[in-house]
Design brief:
The complex is a heterodimer of chains A (377) and B (125).
Chain A: H1 3-7, H2 16-21, E1 25-29, E2 32-37, H3 42-51, E3 53-57, E4 62-68, H4 71-75, E5 91-97, E6 103-115, E7 118-125, H5 130-140, E8 145-148, E9 152-158, H6 162-169, E10 181-186, E11 189-194, E12 203-209, H7 210-222, E13 226-228, H8 231-240, H9 267-272, H10 278-287, E14 291-298, E15 309-311, E16 317-327, E17 332-340, E18 349-354, E19 357-364
Parallel strand pairs in A: 3-13
Antiparallel strand pairs in A: 1-2, 3-9, 4-7, 4-8, 5-6, 6-7, 9-12, 10-11, 11-12, 14-17, 14-19, 15-16, 15-18, 16-17, 18-19
Helix pairs in contact in A: 3-8
Chain B: E1 4-6, E2 11-16, E3 19-24, H1 26-32, E4 35-39, E5 46-47, E6 52-58, E7 62-66, E8 71-76, H2 79-82, H3 86-89, E9 98-102, H4 114-124
Antiparallel strand pairs in B: 1-2, 2-3, 3-9, 4-6, 5-8, 6-7, 8-9
Classes of the chains: A alpha+beta (377), B alpha+beta (125).
Domain Lipoyl-binding (chain B): 19-101
Organism (chain B): Methylocella silvestris
Function (chain B): The glycine cleavage system catalyzes the degradation of glycine. The H protein shuttles the methylamine group of glycine from the P protein to the T protein.
Chain lengths: 377, 125
């Protein structure tokens, strides 16, 4: 734990009392007191999300509005995603890059309807870096208004039954397609709901006034198909889905090409550039990166964790793990990490060094569990 | 006087006629969450008091299990290899870790009894 987080009091989300009532085990995370698990435990919560519907409190994440006359084009100066072509209600995954084309944070960007000649983007960034992200955006694009929205809570409802559950509470919400967002009404107040998430499942993310969050969460939990899910299962779900966790799998030492995030940079952006570190990213695209992020499935039962060294069977070090743990849906340990590009061959045998001993594994394609996104509702 | 003693690291040690059984407490398993793997010591290993003897892996993290007292490992709970969740289900029973032949039973005097351990848990829970 950093000195700062040990000194500063922990913040609480609007659902803190509900977490306590539900018997959550709370842990410090990104300056917040967050539920890591509820009484059923990480494995049960994980499996329930893959079979039914899991409710996640992600109110610690940073929500903000970015607006101005040509806000879409302007935002492209900070991120390589195709923002300028977004239609109202469309969302994209992208990254804030530094001058070397390396990753400061990853985020979701949604275009809202224009208002009074201003283009508007709704941003959701990671909790740990939200202040830094907002300061970075404001400083880099001074002609635009960046307004953090701490008065909003954020919930995620994820899983194959999420659409049916939410449709009962918010009619017509299941008509949203994947990576689309719209405003809805519940009990007289407005919600912004997108069909998105970070579990690999179909699902929704719901941004709503903090004062209404508990009532809305209770309404969802009243449905027997919904279980509350903590950060523990959120992590194992995203790992199985092969999704990067910022600060671990991607950070200011990795670029989007080696991280396997080139899909999030459109052809237009690869040609036009205009984002930080474009020259380096373009070179990595042209020549191929020196290393690549890959998945691993372990042969044995002992998990290999972040930081473990990756070796070839003859003992040559080729990289390190950036995430690793038990995959409840597979019933065995999995991991992600970077290896030298010439070693990034699916099926290749490697050893992951766990407590000084080699744990045999094979390089695997990600996602480990197939994505179940609903492309067209 | 009970045959159970506890460490500040949440191991228990229970004196039985054929040796001292070591495991982690119910509080410890509840803090760890779902146990997915246990690395046990080798039978015949001689452990010093406080030495790392086993590793317990939950979904999220690995934690060391130390020898509450010095001795030789005379048995391990190999059922944990197939069913590590026994640590969650019955930490004081079928979820035990290993058995020691104590080299100096008086070392147990320095450990907490049940009442002291319960009071200790209240200070951190």
């Amino acid at each position: 734990m950093s000195v700062q987080s040990a000194v500063l009091p922990l913040a609480r989300t609007p659902l803190y009392d509900l977490h306590c009532e539900l018997g959550a085990r709370l842990v410090p995370f990104a300056g917040y007191e967050m539920p890591v698990q509820y009484p059923p435990g990480v494995i049960a919560e994980h499996l329930h999300t893959r079979a039914g519907a899991g409710l996640f409190d992600v109110s610690h994440m940073g929500q903000a509005l970015f607006e101005g006359a040509h806000a879409l084009r302007a935002f492209e100066r900070l991120a390589p995603g195709d923002i300028a072509t977004l239609h109202s209600g469309q969302m994209r995954y992208t990254q804030l890059l530094d001058a070397n084309g390396q990753i400061l944070d990853d985020l979701m960007v949604t275009r809202l309807a224009d208002e009074g000649g201003r283009q508007r983007l709704f941003l959701v960034v990671n909790a740990a870096s939200k202040e830094a992200d907002f300061a970075h955006i404001s400083a880099a694009l001074p002609g635009f208004a960046l307004t953090p929205l701490p008065q909003l809570a954020l919930l995620a409802l994820q899983g194959p039954q999420a659409a049916e559950v939410l449709e009962n509470i918010v009619p017509v919400v299941s008509r949203l397609a994947f990576m689309r967002s719209a405003e809805f009404e519940f009990d007289g107040f407005r919600l912004r709901i997108s069909r998105s998430g970070y579990t690999g499942e179909d699902g929704f993310e719901i941004s709503l006034p903090a004062a209404k969050a508990e009532a809305f969460a209770r309404t969802l939990l009243f449905d027997p198909r919904v279980l509350p899910v903590g950060l523990g299962a959120r992590d194992s779900l995203r790992l199985e889905a092969g999704l990067c966790l910022c600060g671990h799998d991607i950070d200011a030492t990795t670029d989007p090409v080696e991280a396997g995030l080139l899909w999030s940079i459109s052809k237009r952006r690869r040609v036009e550039g205009g984002f930080p570190g474009f020259a380096r990213v373009a070179e990595a695209i042209a020549r191929g990166p020196a290393r690549r992020r890959v998945g691993f499935i372990l042969d044995g039962k002992a998990p290999a964790r972040e930081g473990a060294e990756i070796e070839t069977p003859d003992g040559r070090a080729i990289g390190r793990l950036t995430s690793g743990g038990y995959a409840p849906s597979l019933g065995r340990p999995i991991a992600m990490g970077y290896v030298a590009a010439q070693e990034a061959i699916v099926g290749a045998a490697v050893n992951l060094i766990v407590r000084g001993k080699p744990a045999p594994a094979r390089i695997a394609a990600t996602p480990f569990t197939p994505h179940a996104y609903v492309r067209r509702a | 006087m009970s045959n159970l003693r506890y460490t500040k690291d949440h191991e228990y040690i229970r004196l039985e006629p054929d040796g001292a059984v070591v495991g982690i407490t119910d509080f410890a398993q509840s803090q760890l969450g779902d146990v997915v793997f246990v690395e046990l010591p080798v039978v015949g290993a001689v452990l010093a008091e406080g030495a790392e003897a086993a590793v317990v892996e939950s979904v999220k993290a690995a934690s060391g299990v130390n020898a509450p007292a010095s001795g030789e490992v005379i048995g391990v709970n190999s059922a944990l290899e197939e069913k590590p969740a026994l640590v969650n289900e019955e930490p004081n029973g079928s979820g035990w870790f290993f058995k020691l032949k104590l080299s100096d039973p008086s070392e147990l005097d320095a450990l907490m009894d049940e009442e002291a351990y319960e009071a200790f848990v209240k200070t951190i829970a």
